[in-house]
Amino acid sequence: MADPEIFDVIVIGAGPVGENVAQYATQGTSLTGALIERELVGGECSYYACIPSKTLLRPVEIAATAAHLPGLSGTTLDRRALLARRDEWVSSYDDSGQVDWADGVGLTVLRGSGRLAGERLVELATPDGTRVLKARHAVVIATGSEPNVPSVYDGCLPWGSRDATGVDEVPARLVIVGGGVVACEAAVWMSALGSSVTLLSRGERLLNRVEPFASELVLGALRKAGVDVRLGVEVTECRREDPQATGLGRVHGGPVVLETSQGPLTADEVLVAVGRRPRLDHVGLASVGLDQKKALAGDVPPWLVLVGDASGEAPLTHWGKYRARVLGERIAANAAGGRQQPVPDVVPVPQVIFTDPQVASVGLTERDARKAGVDVVVTHVPWTAASGAALLRDDVEGGAQLVVDRSTRLVVGATFVGPEAGELLHAATIAITGKVPVEVLRHAVPSYPTAGELWLRLIEQLPGEILRPAV
Known about the structure:
Blueprint lengths: L4 E8 L3 H11 L6 E5 L5 H5 L2 H18 L11 H11 L6 H9 L2 E5 L1 E6 L2 E6 L2 E13 L3 E3 L13 H5 L7 E5 L3 H12 L3 E6 L10 H13 L3 E4 L3 E6 L15 E5 L2 E5 L1 E4 L3 E3 L13 H5 L7 E3 L10 H20 L13 E4 L4 E6 L2 H6 L4 E7 L4 H4 L8 E7 L5 E8 L6 H9 L4 H4 L11 H8 L11
Parallel strand pairs: 1-2, 1-6, 2-3, 6-16, 8-9, 8-14, 9-10
Antiparallel strand pairs: 4-5, 5-6, 7-15, 11-12, 12-13, 17-18, 18-21, 19-20, 20-21
Helix pairs in contact: 1-10, 3-4, 3-7
């Protein structure tokens, strides 16, 4: 066997998380980095998830806003133009721009499938053969995640999230199975594109990780938009007439028949969005004495790290990129024999769900805070409590909520539901990360008339003793 090719850092998976690890580990240093990618450099987020989904959702949001603002004659969605804009934002599934970026920052892009082959060793399988690489300092697994598809859909060729964001042929009748973020967001844009959407959720509410009031608002809005939402439903059988693998975003054959606990359904396509799992089946963990359980628990040798969706942490691009930046800086510091800058004790995970209305949340829900033994005070106001928020859209439904630790006077959780709610979230993230007590936050003056005044209304609702400095 030929001697292995040497790099300081080898990253398996060149999505946003892998790119960030490699960049932060090598920038400003003499370290070399290799990015291994079997599909498109830029990863799921750039081509099949965050970017295309938000590209599809933004025009839908604007059209809905226009329909609720007197003085506007309304906005008609141009399906062809909308999908063309989506194609532009995903670079027509061409990753040459991302490869140019990697080259520009001194990273080596290697095409193929990478897997561990021993201590600091990575085997790279390419159409031209197999290469062996060795890392001086670290091997990083940033292979992302893949959808869970229950066996009941075997033979049905269901759509996955990639088909939904890459939609080319809009099915007249679409069944979406799932009640999470992907399912709810897809229901918004597929309905707006003209599909008759039925959404089936096993749970008794949608988006079960957010505050209950947020779930109710999204449920009501979807139904108002014409989506047939059915809760507490189990799919027991799926069959399709003449299944055909017709390509990304196209109807995969004849009609689909679903047998459910609430009766049969027939549709032109079924989108299965019931969760994702770390993509770790083929990364060679056994070659270094590991299995997935150990790897996800962090029980790995010091030269090996899992990050992003592959780590089992929050499957959110921005969270994975944050963790990647911290990890990359740590690798660089360790290689130089120095110390990494300290990381705050509390780093909350923010999330925006781009339904209509948007759901923006960070930190603990009231239920999770109480479950953790935190004595909390909860304050809630309707979206219309601030003139600037109400002005965004007439007939608006929404709300805002803070969860405050009674003893420390610190915000531990926040949720905003309404038009452009995501733009309010970073202030909450800063308040939690910076441990700013509410008696200080009350002096952060919001501009009038903006939605930021919701912060003032929330703090005004807190009991007086919470607004006095802790002794």
